[in-house]
Amino acid sequence: MKKFIYILLLLIPVVAFSQWTIVPSGTTNTLRSVFFTDAKTGYVVGDEGTILKTINGGTTWTAQSSGTNNQLESVYFTNADTGYSVGEGGIILKTLNAGGTWTNLSSGSTDWLFSIYFTDVNTGYAVGDTGTILKTINGGATWIKDSSGTTIPLTSVFFPNANVGYAVGWWGIILKTINAGITWTTLYDQESTFNTLNTVFFINADTGYIAGDIQYGDGPVVRTLDGGQFWYLVNNSTINDVQSIYFPNPTTGYAVCDNGVIEKSIDGGNDWLLMTSGTTNMLMSVYFTDSDTGYTVGDNGTILKTTDGGGFFVGLNDLSPKSNQLKIYPNPAKDKCNVQCACLRQVNYVCDIRSIEIFNLTGEKVYGAEFSAGTMNSVEVDLDFPAGVYFVRLTSDKDVEVGKLVRW
User: Fold this and answer.
1) What was the pLDDT predicted at 303?
2) What is the pLDDT of residue 192?
3) What is the DSSP letter of 183?
4) What is the reported pTM?
5) Within 10 A of 257 (CB to CB), how many other CB atoms are there?
6) Distances (CA, A) of 52 to 97, 156, 160, 402
7) What is the per-residue pLDDT for 48?
8) In this structure, are residues 52 and 302 in contact, taking their beta carbons and an 8 Å threshold?
9) Cα 149 from Cα 187, distance rounded (Å)
10) For 157-187, what is each residue's pLDDT tens digit?
11) How far is the C-alpha of 277 from the C-alpha of 298, rounded, in Å?
């Protein structure tokens, strides 16, 4: 199993160094949720009824008329034209024309709604205060209140498939349904461990993540591999409260937090390491349109964008390569590996390796060697350091190349 995970890690490209870019939003209102319907078209909602839309991949954002001053907490689109937003006072808004106009639907509830999720164009769920779970089966025309079995506020809802869904909230409560919301079972209710769970995300019916404000500084991300029967803490680099989690693919995940903190995992959520965000504002929501292109929003109208998977982890910014053709074999490796520069794969091109450095994911150098001139194209390296994922930087007389190494 470990070898399989390591091989998956090798398929993730070495990230570039541009990190996250601040995008002007045109507002100072807190932005609480972001959703994209395609690579170019996205929506953001927030305080005072704020709705923003982009049609150029986040380069510019235009304010939409929501018809309300209520705080909007969550936005979700079922297709390019049809979308929903929920928030203060039980408000549910719907658009049928890609945000051109928004209609206030009758939710039948005055409870504050924090999260909305649809499993198809007609079937959706909204959760909020006093354990409220609302369900529609007709595209929001009517909403029925499900019996959640709790009065604890619920902050986030997610369905990995049409029947199986999860809702989380205050005091560590985790609810699960296996019959499309007809009944909900409390999986976990542990105030001594959790203060508030802010987000839930599943990559399939079995593997999911919850995060929020976990007591005693143990780290804010928790994972299940068996559909919520057991949950366990993973390795985190921050004790900041996590507000939102998103996985663009099964191995790569992002968590955005208070104080502008962004964490990234490249091993399926087992280890989370810090990235450079360029802001100290609280980040409330994160969404990726592909493995490299993502957005996060938060306090003071903050919108950040990345086009390179968030760049390097903190401490690895100085590894920016001029090329990405470095060959490392075998990989994964146990005791030794060979590091070969790109010149052996180009006609009439030779190089002379001058140095090789290996760094762990926190930026600590675990190996370094320098070589005298002599037209050397490859070097054998002794791997006298712990198992894990590493970055290798080769400097030659021609170029600087960076690759990824897995030591098992």
Assistant:
1) 98
2) 52
3) S
4) 0.79
5) 29
6) 14, 21, 27, 39
7) 98
8) no
9) 12
10) 999 999 999 999 998 899 999 999 999 999 9
11) 12
Q: Which is nearest to 223 in space by CA: 265, 177, 162?
A: 265
Position 310, amino acid: G
Residue 403 β-bridge partners: 392
> DSSP of 29-50, one letter per residue?
S-EEEEEESSSS-EEEEEGGG-
Q: Which two tokens stand for residue 162?
A: 């049409």
Structure-block tokens of residue 38: 């395609």
What distance in Å separates the CA atoms of residue 211 and residue 195, rounded to the nearest whole number? 10
Q: Which domains does the chain have, with CATH numbers?
A: 18-306 (2.130.10.10), 321-407 (2.60.40.3080)
Q: How many residues does the chain have?
A: 408
272's tokens: 């989370």
For the chain, residues with pLDDT lower than 70 are 1-18, 189-194, 214-219, 315-325, 342-350, 362, 374-375
Tell me the C-alpha to C-alpha distance, in Å, between residue 41 and each of 44, 82, 205, 313, 360.
11, 13, 28, 28, 37
pLDDT of residue 16: 37
